[in-house]
Design goal:
heterodimer; A: alpha/beta; seven-stranded mixed sheet; six-stranded mixed sheet; 40% helix; 18% strand; B: alpha/beta; eight-stranded mixed sheet; 10 strands; 16% strand
């Protein structure tokens, strides 16, 4: 193991190198580009013995990954924002063919208006494609999660592709000290890829992506669904093994101060570092505040979230993505986790950090203020709140609050 | 060495009982090509007639993947790289089978990228000059004046309005990529076609074969006329048979001995029937003029080799 001062992009590339991926097919897009550049360098220097396919679009990047995985190669790509949106239809194909492809996403907002900055909209919009989705808080977690992802999805109980999402710029371009494990150590955790799924092989011919008529399509969907549910258990096993070998523990969710909390903030990604600081400051002032960080968004940690927050008075869900006209995207999923509890907290939804806006301590304090005011109410006065929105700007645009 | 009709395998790679229309030209194109390709083949088939027609019910004896509509060439790129990385590339034939919709229109970008990067694969486009699987809509390969459901005849419309000279010419387009080998082929000239397939798969790089595949329901002719129509397309120079090496050197591989008038070809097809009304009488002369100009141009290109 060596401790290196590297960016999120570099940490992701290091992980792909350590996973000894066979094929990388990728197309550049800010802020993901450096990942592909690092990998191209490793291949050029012979540090990674992989085939690089510099494709002509993200649609072809995912298609080439599908082709490579279909012949049994361990396959990696990375994308962001518009690029990920362009891949959309191929994502269903990768999941439907049960190909364990790992893709890093440097989260970025979508046009229009144009933004290159962080927003979870891009990957959250791919929620229902059948991919596992992990969100990381720092560069170390980015590296570790790529390895955990391969180990989990190559397991024959899962066989679904996975996205590892790191916040654009906040993580992709910020350097932190990262423990980069030794290749030998990684091999013990993640052995060479030996496909547990049927591959295109002239010695064992088969037809892939057949037409499923109404008498079977539903069962294919059910099979994918239960595989995703099973992935929770496999994920936990992978994380436990990872902790044993590397000393860093992860779980589907991470909690802090929830045991006695009256108020709990829930969210995911790099902003959870700031949330942790805000919670610590508030606790120093005597406020009983806690935090839940979602690491595994798919499979969604329904029971874990319910267990962590059910005794609290108010939960505030921080959404860095928007379902226009409804509110946050994670929020309804949290409500689903709580609905069948006999006692459940009041829930508020905070839309924060869209298009790269900093999620600051004052913004979080405003959110906590709203939550405190809601304590004891039978239902929230306002359910979807934008604590970071610029009221003066909205007023200048003639938009009523 | 070179395959002849006598040495061509008796083994069939297109099984009886497939789900295609009677007289399907594309099935004949696939049957001939697969007899050359053999079992040592991985085939990526873009969405279209042949997925349903061949992939599901035709029982290919080699691995077969039905891709999305536009990504067959990108998927084969990944297969090429994947097999290379696993040291299993060897002499496996990687072949795309795609219609003209999946090739000239929605799949053009992926094909262009795969050829430009130089992946080793053969791309066979079975050209039935329209979106036949979805019920006869026009494509970038539909000829001038042809009636389709999206280029109907009526009012001021005579069918496909885009002039013949601006129809996408895939072989010349790929020649502009410097592709090592590109050719047109006809199911009415099987020996020429299978030799082209044989030659193409021996190339350590990309190759492309564009085979005209008459479509009985889409073009409006009787099921037993498929080969006759294909032959007339060649004899009238409507669909010239040629090959291009390294994107530069053109060669006419079937020099039609007896040139026939385009009218003879058009007359047999329902999609052109309106052109024979008084109103459109001039159009046939116009099509003939363009066919002649294209043939003359190809002959000039073919002459370049000698010089």
């Amino acid at each position: 193991m060596s401790r290196q001062y590297i960016s999120g992009c570099c940490a992701v590339a290091e992980a792909a190198r350590l996973a000894e991926v066979n094929v990388v097919a990728a197309y550049p897009i800010t802020p993901q580009t450096s990942i592909v550049e690092y990998l191209a360098n490793y291949v050029a220097k012979g540090e990674l013995k992989a085939e690089m396919i510099p494709v002509e679009s993200e649609h072809s990047a995912m298609s080439a990954c599908i082709g490579a995985a279909c012949v049994g190669a361990r396959t990696f790509t990375a994308s962001s924002s518009q690029g990920l949106a362009l891949m959309h239809e191929c994502l269903f194909m990768a999941a439907g063919l049960r190909l364990p492809i790992v893709m890093a996403i440097a989260n970025r907002a979508l046009a229009a208006p144009v933004s290159i900055f962080c927003d979870h909209q891009d990957s959250l919009a791919q929620r229902d494609t059948g991919w596992l989705q992990f969100y990381v808080e720092n560069c170390q977690e980015a590296l570790d999660t790529i390895l955990i992802a391969y180990r989990t999805i190559e397991d024959e109980r899962v066989l679904l592709p996975a996205m590892v999402c790191l916040d654009g710029f906040f993580l992709s371009h910020i350097s932190e000290p990262v423990d980069v494990p030794e290749a030998e150590q990684v091999k013990r955790f993640l052995p060479a890829h030996s496909p547990k799924y049927p591959i295109l092989d002239v010695n064992n011919p088969g037809i892939f992506n057949v037409m499923a008529f109404p008498d079977t399509y539903e069962e294919f969907s059910y099979d994918r669904h239960v595989s995703m549910l099973r992935a929770r258990e496999v994920l936990r096993e992978s994380m436990a093994d990872f902790a044993r070998l590397f000393g860093r523990s992860y779980d589907l969710i991470e909690t802090y101060g929830c045991e006695d909390a009256e108020l709990i903030l829930l969210g995911m990604g790099s902003m959870m570092g700031t949330v942790r600081t805000a919670v610590r400051l508030l606790r120093e002032e005597g406020e009983k505040v806690g935090l839940v960080k979602i690491k595994s968004y798919r499979p969604f940690p329904t029971q874990e979230v319910a267990a962590a927050v059910q005794k609290t008075a108010v939960i505030g869900v921080l959404d860095r993505g928007l379902s226009t006209g409804l509110g946050g995207i994670i929020y309804p999923e949290v409500l689903k986790s709580l609905y069948h509890l006999t006692t459940r907290p009041l829930a508020l939804n905070f839309i924060v950090g869209l298009g790269g806006r900093d999620v600051t301590i004052p913004i979080l304090q405003r959110a906590v203020q709203e939550m405190k005011q809601a304590i004891g109410a039978s239902r929230p006065k306002r359910e979807t709140i934008w604590p970071g929105a610029d009221r003066a700007l909205l007023q200048a645009w003639g938009i009523k609050d | 060495m070179a395959t002849t009709l006598k040495t061509l395998t008796d083994e069939e790679f297109v099984a009886p009982g497939r789900a295609g229309c009677n007289g399907c030209g594309a099935v004949i194109a696939a049957r001939m090509a697969t007899k050359v390709l053999g079992r040592n083949t991985l085939m990526a088939n873009a969405t279209g007639c042949m997925c349903v027609n061949y992939g599901y019910a035709g029982a290919p004896k080699f691995p077969f993947i039905h891709t999305l509509f536009e990504n067959a060439a990108a998927i084969i790129s990944g297969m090429d790289a994947g097999l290379r990385s696993l040291h299993k590339r060897d002499d496996v034939n990687l072949v795309v089978l795609a219609g003209d919709g999946g090739t000239t229109d929605i799949g053009l970008q992926a094909l262009s990228g795969a050829v430009e990067r130089g992946h080793r694969f053969l791309y066979i486009c079975y050209d039935n000059e329209g979106y036949m699987n979805t019920g006869v809509q026009r494509s970038g390969a539909t000829p001038y004046g042809a009636k389709t459901t999206t280029t109907p005849v009526g009012g001021d419309r005579l069918g496909e309005p885009r002039p013949l000279e601006r129809r996408k010419d895939m072989v010349r387009l790929l020649a502009a990529h410097g592709i090592p080998y590109a050719a047109t082929a006809s199911i009415a000239h099987p020996l020429d076609y299978i030799r082209k397939v044989e030659r193409a798969i021996a190339i350590d790089g990309s190759s492309y074969i564009h085979v005209l595949s008459p479509c009985s329901p889409g073009w409006g002719f009787a099921e037993n006329m498929t080969i006759k129509i294909a032959r007339l397309a060649v004899e009238t120079h409507f669909f010239p048979i040629y090959e291009v090496e390294d994107g530069r050197w053109y060669r006419l591989t079937i020099k039609a001995e007896r040139k026939k008038a385009v009218e003879e070809y058009l007359r047999l097809q329902g999609r052109f029937s309106h052109l024979f009304s008084e109103r459109y009488r001039d159009e046939i002369a116009r099509i003939q003029a363009e066919v002649d100009a294209n043939w003359a141009y190809l002959k000039q290109l073919a002459a370049l080799r000698a010089g």
